[in-house]
Structure formats: structure tokens, C-alpha cells
């Protein structure tokens, strides 16, 4: 494509140069399409002109043919195309992408220290050289908030449990440890994390910096990870103390007792105040939980919503667009007196999947024209595919066809109807969710009253969202996920509140990227951002909703960017955050383009 564009530009430049010379020199021949006509004309001059034009076109055609047939290597695709030359990617260039494949950068600087001393040396040297080393975790943030071409530092090799206080139920870890690894290592002490993310590969250092509703990457705590339960605060509230390696002040330790103002700012610091090297977390007793999954509808949800929030430790709703189905999932500690529930599921997993498999085989016939008993000859056996894998394959056939998406959504509703029942397991086994493959997602957080007096704004938000989807014929797949948390005291958290009893709702909309075809992914991306823009225009201001830091996308339009900056400044202590950045990272070596766009300094403005 790039070579085609270059060739096209060259041809246009040649013609433009030709016409300009014609205007300057009347005797210079002007290109005239009629010269190729068979109409007789002056024999000598016209014949000569046609001959030279023919030679010119032959040379241009030969050059273009040579250019297009020249063997560009695959790894030269991101280099500037030049005639008769290609430049393969250097061996020292690292490709880093986020989990969803929506953001990717290439950098020569990707550092992985093995100790805090090595990390301190890296930060110190980078600060002296004014060379960027943006902290990046497992790359699970949909918006690639930790990525930059200038350079990155990753703590995957700093992944040890440093100490466990069984009595206080606290654990101190290096920030590169992954959630699943941490959970496995502290099992023997009878403790575990209070909440978990859908994906357990996140590093603790990323999860702390993003503030998410479920436990994720320490870059995620630092961007505001959240949990699932109106009684439970977001993940950042589990952080008791942190050790930050800063460019200007070296390694500092902060906590509620030691520099509380900076602690509450840095606990959701988006990786801009220092590299989180160590974290002390408040854990809870490891418990067996009973998960109850059942299908409901909006009418019954409205009737029982307050009860669901107040009586369940963990609760979430999964809405299925273009249907009235709402999947309710609750989790509570198993009663030692009652023991596990005696109810047996009505359907087996195979029976629950059968309707989805049938639709898959039917769709294969429709879209590909042939099918065998087990699927297309080049497809794996459908009995080997999980529900989310089947859904991805179904959507990939026609992802932006509303009628096709509705069929897939109805099949999902039927799957959940036949999956109703109970599941018993340890909290680290139960509190997770298979969220599917590559995807675009936008998640907002907004106030929902208090636990004793919910405002019901959370359900009003969903009703307006569903009406918008149907009115605008959005090919919206399932699920639209809704969770709740208590408030956070971290000042940069979307769930920040000074009132202890406030609760917040988190709502995520989604579009899957079930194909690696670049054109199709681009079309899905355009449709998703149209979908997101409509929800923003109709819902966000009305409900005081703000996007999750790991899912916010920086607008390209200057006016939209200015509006976003102004909106963020009303909600968050941007001036205090920028002042802390100025003191701790004056050369902005931990920053990237996203942070600079979201939080421009007063000098830059």
C-alpha cells in the first residue's frame, strides 16, 4: 500500500511538472489525450509527439512494474518505501503490543532489570540522558497506556514474594510478579487477594497504577483496577505501601502514614510519578465461594436490584443486546453450616453449547458454502471449542451485520439459560471470567448512590444504552458488563469519593476483533468508535461517567482533545498530579504521548 501511494505521488508530481513547464515554455508539448485518437492530423509533428509520449509511458510503466515486483521483505513493512531499496528491521528493534493487538510500538530500548538496584541504575542513567523509559506491565491495557517508541522498562524479572505477614494478612512483593503466580505462592499461608481480574497474567505493578474493577496488572492498579461487589473497594485500596523509584528523588517509600498526600496520588499514578518496584498488599482469608449464575430480565432486575447489591459479596450483570436477557452472577462465602448447594444443573456443558454449535454449522454453510459433520475441513473440531471461541468464530463471519450479531447474541442467551446453576471453589478459582479474544472495550465509572440507598442511576444508564443501541442499529455483541465497587480514596481513581458509603457502577461496552484481516479489523474499529462516541455524547455527562484509565483513547481532533482535557480537570486533581510529576520526574522520562496529551503542563498549554 505504501509503495502504491509513493508511486502514485511520483506520477502526479511528474504530470504537474510537465504542465508547469508547458506554461513556462509555449513550445514544450502539452499532454493531450486526443493525440491518441485515430483521427487524422498533421502527420509529422503529431506522430513524433505520440512516439515520445509512448516512450515516456513505457519508461514509467517499466519503472512501476519493477518497483511493485521488487522483493520487499516482510519485516520492512513499517519502513519508508524507496525505489529499488528496502530496509529490514534491525535486530535490536523490539516489537511490543498490547493483549488485544490494538496498539503496537517498536523500540530499541526495552529494559528488564532483575533487581531494585539495577532498576535504580536504569532510572538514574535515563534521567541524566533525558531518555524515556516508560513503565510497562503485561500489556493488558486496551489503550496501550504503557507503550512508547522512545523506550520502556518492564519488571517481569522482578517477580518475587519478599515477605508474608500471616497474622496481619499482608504480603510484600516485587512489582513484576503476576497475579496468578502471587495467588499460588500465598495459598500455603491461607490468604489470598480480595479480588481478581478476568485475566491473571497481569503484573501487580501495573494493576496498581490503573485502578480497575477487577484485579489486573500493577500497571493496572496504578491505572485504577476495580472489583466486583458494592462492598468491596477498587484494587488500589488494597495497597498499604509502595516503593517508587523516581528520576529526581531516587527510591522513596510511601504509605498512608508516610507522605499520605503523595501516597493517595501515586496509588493510581498511571506510571507517571515513578516506577513501582515493590508493593505491600492487604490480603484476606482464603475462602471457598459459591458462585450462582442465573438468567433474569430487566423487570426482575429492577425489582431485586437493591437486594442483589446488599446481600451479595460479589455481583455482576451481563446484558445481551437485542434481547431481554440479563445474566446475573453472584459469589458468596460458602456456609460452613449449610455446606455446598445440593442443586444439580439441568443441562450438561455439551447441551448448553449445542445451540451455539448448531448456529456455527448453519453459518458455515451460509458464508462458506460447505460444511462437514465436525465443521469446515480447515477448521478444528467444533467439540474442541469453548463458548468464547465459538462466539469469536461466529462473529468473524460477518461482524458488522446487525442481523447476524443478533443471532449470535440470542445463541449466547440460550447458552447462559442452559448454564444456570452453582459452582463451588476457592476464591482464586472462582473470581475470574473468560472475556474472549482480541477486542475493543470502553468502560465507564459513575456514582450509583450508597449501599443502603442506591440511586438506581446504574439501571437507568443501561436502559438508555440499550435504547441507543437499538435506535442506531449498532451491531453490538454481548455482553455489556456491569459491576459495582465501593469508593476509593486514591485521588486519581474514577471511583474517588470522600464519602465512605458511596458506591460506583462500572459499565463496559465491547466489540470483538475476531479476525486478523487488516481491512476487517479497521472496519470494526471504526464502528466501535462510532458506538463509543454515541454513548459518550448521550450518557457520560448526564451520569457523571468517566472512562477507566486503561481504556481511554486520546482523540485526534484538537477540539475533542481540549474538551477531554477540560473534563478531566473538573474530575481529577490534574494540577496536583502535574506538580508531583514535575518534582519527581522533571525530565518526563516516565511519560509518553498519551500522558502528555491527557495532562499537558501549564507551560505547554
From TrEMBL:
Pfam families xrefs: ALO (PF04030), FAD_binding_4 (PF01565)
Pathway(s) this gene product operates in, as recorded in its UniProt entry: Cofactor biosynthesis; L-ascorbate biosynthesis
Required cofactor(s): FAD
Annotated FAD-binding PCMH-type domain residues: 102-286
Keywords, comma-separated and alphabetical: Oxidoreductase
GO cellular component: membrane
GO molecular function terms listed in the Swiss-Prot or TrEMBL record: D-arabinono-1,4-lactone oxidase activity; FAD binding; galactonolactone dehydrogenase activity
Keyword Oxidoreductase: yes
This protein's name: FAD-binding PCMH-type domain-containing protein
Lineage, top ranks: Eukaryota, Viridiplantae, Streptophyta, Embryophyta, Tracheophyta
Amino acid at each position: 500500500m505504501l509503495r502504491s501511494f509513493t508511486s502514485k505521488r511520483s506520477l502526479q508530481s511528474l504530470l504537474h511538472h510537465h504542465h508547469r513547464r508547458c506554461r513556462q515554455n509555449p513550445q514544450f508539448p502539452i499532454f493531450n489525450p486526443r493525440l491518441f485518437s485515430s483521427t487524422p492530423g498533421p502527420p509529422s509533428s503529431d506522430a513524433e509527439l505520440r512516439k515520445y509520449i509512448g516512450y515516456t509511458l513505457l519508461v514509467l510503466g517499466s519503472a512501476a512494474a519493477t518497483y511493485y515486483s521488487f522483493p520487499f521483505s516482510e519485516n520492512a513493512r513499517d519502513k519508508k518505501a524507496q525505489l529499488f531499496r528496502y530496509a529490514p528491521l534491525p535486530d535490536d528493534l523490539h516489537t511490543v503490543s498490547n493483549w488485544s493487538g490494538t496498539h503496537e510500538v517498536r523500540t530499541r530500548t526495552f529494559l528488564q532489570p532483575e533487581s531494585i538496584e539495577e532498576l535504580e541504575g536504569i532510572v538514574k542513567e535515563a534521567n541524566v540522558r533525558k531518555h524515556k523509559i516508560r513503565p510497562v506491565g503485561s500489556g493488558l491495557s486496551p489503550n496501550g497506556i504503557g507503550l512508547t517508541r522512545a523506550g520502556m522498562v518492564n519488571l517481569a524479572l522482578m517477580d518475587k514474594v519478599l515477605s508474608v505477614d500471616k497474622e496481619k494478612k499482608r504480603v510484600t512483593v516485587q512489582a513484576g510478579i503476576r497475579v496468578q503466580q502471587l495467588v499460588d505462592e500465598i495459598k500455603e499461608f491461607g490468604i489470598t487477594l480480595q479480588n481478581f481480574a478476568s485475566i491473571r497474567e497481569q503484573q501487580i505493578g501495573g494493576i496498581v497504577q490503573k485502578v480497575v474493577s477487577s484485579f489486573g496488572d500493577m500497571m493496572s492498579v496504578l491505572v485504577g483496577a476495580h472489583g466486583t461487589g458494592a462492598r468491596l473497594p477498587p484494587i488500589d485500596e488494597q495497597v498499604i505501601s509502595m516503593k517508587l523509584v523516581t528520576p529526581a528523588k531516587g527510591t522513596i517509600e510511601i504509605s498512608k502514614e508516610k507522605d499520605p498526600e503523595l501516597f493517595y496520588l501515586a496509588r493510581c499514578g498511571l506510571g507517571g510519578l515513578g516506577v513501582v518496584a515493590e508493593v505491600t498488599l492487604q490480603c484476606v482469608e482464603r475462602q471457598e465461594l459459591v458462585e450462582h449464575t442465573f438468567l433474569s430480565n430487566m423487570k426482575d432486575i429492577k425489582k431485586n436490584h437493591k437486594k442483589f447489591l446488599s446481600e451479595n459479596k460479589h455481583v455482576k450483570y451481563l446484558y445481551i443486546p437485542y434481547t431481554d436477557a440479563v445474566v446475573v452472577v453472584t459469589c458468596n462465602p460458602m456456609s460452613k453450616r449449610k455446606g455446598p448447594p445440593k442443586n444439580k444443573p439441568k443441562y450438561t456443558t455439551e447441551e448448553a453449547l449445542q445451540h451455539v454449535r448448531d448456529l456455527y454449522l448453519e453459518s458455515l454453510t451460509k458464508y462458506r458454502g460447505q460444511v462437514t459433520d465436525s465443521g469446515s475441513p480447515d477448521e478444528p473440531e467444533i467439540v474442541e471449542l469453548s463458548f468464547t471461541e465459538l462466539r469469536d468464530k461466529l462473529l468473524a463471519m460477518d461482524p458488522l451485520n446487525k442481523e447476524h450479531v443478533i443471532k449470535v447474541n440470542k445463541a449466547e442467551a440460550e447458552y447462559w439459560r442452559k448454564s444456570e446453576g452453582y459452582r463451588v471453589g476457592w476464591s482464586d478459582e472462582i473470581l475470574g471470567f473468560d472475556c474472549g479474544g482480541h477486542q475493543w472495550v470502553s468502560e465507564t465509572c459513575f456514582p450509583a448512590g450508597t449501599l443502603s440507598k442506591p440511586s438506581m442511576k446504574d439501571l437507568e444508564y443501561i436502559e438508555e444504552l440499550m435504547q441507543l443501541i437499538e435506535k442506531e442499529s449498532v451491531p453490538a455483541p454481548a455482553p455489556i458488563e456491569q459491576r459495582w465497587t465501593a469508593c476509593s480514596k486514591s485521588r486519581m481513581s474514577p471511583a474517588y469519593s470522600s464519602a465512605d458509603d458511596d458506591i460506583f457502577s462500572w459499565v463496559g461496552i465491547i466489540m470483538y476483533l475476531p479476525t486478523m484481516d487488516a481491512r476487517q479489523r479497521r472496519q470494526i474499529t471504526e464502528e466501535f468508535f462510532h458506538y463509543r462516541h454515541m454513548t459518550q455524547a448521550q450518557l457520560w455527562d448526564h451520569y457523571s461517567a468517566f472512562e477507566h484509565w486503561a481504556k481511554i483513547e486520546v482523540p485526534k481532533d484538537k477540539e475533542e482533545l481540549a474538551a477531554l482535557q477540560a473534563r478531566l480537570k473538573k474530575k481529577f486533581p490534574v494540577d496536583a498530579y502535574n506538580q508531583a510529576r514535575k518534582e519527581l520526574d522533571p525530565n518526563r522520562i516516565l511519560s509518553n504521548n498519551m500522558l502528555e496529551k491527557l495532562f499537558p503542563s501549564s507551560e505547554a498549554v
